[in-house]
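Recall that a protein's primary structure is simply its ordered list of amino acids. Everything else, from secondary elements to tertiary packing, is in principle encoded there. The following example makes that idea concrete.
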Amino acid sequence: MSAIKRQAKAVIDELLDEVVHSLLDFMEKLQEWEATREILEDEEFSAEIEQGVRDVKAGRTVEWRKVKRTNV
């Protein structure tokens, strides 16, 4: 285990469970934000999302029942 992880573990061990719970929630939000940021920085993927939004607004959609696979 690295020194920084040992130090973090020592600090966490001293915290109340409620504080640790809040820290875990915060860390999960950071991970979600990182994933969102990566998606938004992907120009091709962002363009595909924008095209999808335009398609929905223009009524270019297909009902789920028509595209779902029934023999999965």
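The chain is about 80% helix and 0% strand. Residues 3-61 form one domain.
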